[in-house]
Amino acid sequence: MPDAPQRSSAPQRSDALKNREAILQVAHDALAESADASLNSIAKRAGVGAGTLYRHFPTREALILAVYRHDVDRLVDSVPDVLAAHAPLDALRHWFTTLAAYVRLKHGLGDALNTAAAQEIVGATTTTVTAAVGRLLAACEQAGEVRPGLDPTDVIMLMSCLWRTPDTPEGTAQVQRLLDLAIDGFRP
After folding, report:
1. Which domains are present in the chain?
2. pTM of the predicted model as reported, rounded to 2 decimal places
3. What is the pLDDT of residues 50-63, one digit of tens each?
């Protein structure tokens, strides 16, 4: 997998996994603050040496793509918790608001998205995101809040307008208005 180069097929030690997670979390925050954050500053903030960071992520691109994959995986994995905490339609709204906020950050993905490794990661995450949206729509359909048969890929395409809004209070308000319009169109 391009986001987690391994030297061998043996499982990583628990301290190596802990270091990897720390690096990913710090990199998420640092790249949200500045797409130009240096790898050395990320290693320092994560409390690891530069060698440790480079063992896990030999290039800047590998780290950026790993952060992207990690964040998307966390968002996809959050669906059961979001459904448990909210009524299905509110869960759909909450989940897409979170996705839009994440996509707006970009984490320095601009140039990295033009590589073959990036296309592999984006392809893999598209599948899991589509499945997550399908699960949210199924819960909404079961609750009678959306009409049957909505295609998750169509919903994602429609909702892509959410991450084109500016990261401002006005943009946040616009996200809610756009969600209202879209959800009105989903209703039975």
Report:
1. 14-186 (1.10.357.10)
2. 0.79
3. 999 999 999 998 99
